[in-house]
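User: structure tokens for this one?
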Amino acid sequence: MKGNRFFNLVKLLILLAGCVIDAFLVFKGFYAYAVLIFLLLACLAYSIYQQIHFLSQQVVEFSEAVKYHDFTRRFVVKNAKSTEGRLFTSFNQINDTYKEISMDKEIQHQYLDRVINMLNSAIIFYQLDSGKVMWVNDAFKQLFHMPHLGNISALKKKHEELYEKTMRLDVGQQQMESVQSKKGKIKLLIQSSSFETQDAVFRIVVYQNINEAMDETETKAWQKLLRVLTHEIMNSIAPISSLAETLNGRLNHFRGQEDIEDLKVGISTIQRRSQGLLHFAKSYRMINKVDEPSLVPISAAQLFEHIYQLLEPTILQKNVDVDIILKNTRLILHADVNLIEQVIINLMLNAIDAVKLNDNPYISLSAIEADGKIQVRIEDNGIGIPSDLQEQIFTPFFTTKKTGTGVGLTLSKQIMLLHKGTIFVNSEEGKGSVFILQF
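Assistant:
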């Protein structure tokens, strides 16, 4: 490398010295020698120019190749120590590096393409400004019968309803929409996100077909509800029908005052059973008529204190040890006071009933905040809930109590859903249960 630089420096010095000598010969009048030296200097200068031009041309061609991502050319290195050799070696190294990067990108692209096409959710990925579609997965093509989509604006011609609902969707939000597809009218959960690169802003929209999941869930819910309804109605109707048939037989063979007493008892029983059936129907109507909540800030400490005051006589009577645990006494809930009180009181009464056979009955009422969500927990050391029943306890009218209506937990779940929250249970038979209200 140093030798190459020295050689180039010598050529430049020779050229400079030759110019000085040639000027001196012209000044002295030795024109023939001056012309000869001039020709030699011209040859040397042309040689230097050719070398510089050749190298410049190679740099320009390499730059063009980089511009168009063409890294297939190989530069022949004759002398690794020369300027040309070192330049060509660098070009080859850059080409090899770009080939590796391109290969890695291609592998990542194929991997990502395979993963995205394995998803059941339809996905479209496009540039926000130009609308150019960068990616459409197979699920999108199959769901909306679009084998190709070059620009998002083309979606308007092919599926105007889907286009308008996609354009109206705010970035970072999700919403449920009904749209037409080749499978008919379907429900979609649509959500979008965006990201920005150095070149442009891109948007990803995901369309999740929730029809099948909803239909399956709805079918299971109806099956559970119908089983409970059938059980409850049959329990009331069958005795009434049997008793009415018996009373009708008595009337056909009426024997006087003795039968009148039996008829009174029978009619009274029918009335009582009918009232039970009416109460059952009112309970069902009550589940479907929970009002929309009026959300206000509630101090968890005050809420718990009020509930304890309401339940204190029962707690003392049942001799239950109740702890209220609240590490953050300034914790605030945004909820409907009346509805949430109803839920917590119902869960506390259930807990009191669950611990009645325990020698040391214990219940804790607590609230914590984690990951921006507030949880209210009602925990007991009671009899627990069998694992096979834990999924059914929120089903309307399902109850394991002899005097229960099976409405309380269903109402509690409805109220939590109206608060955009949920209720779930962790329980182990013989060790107790914890009901969690998550806001």
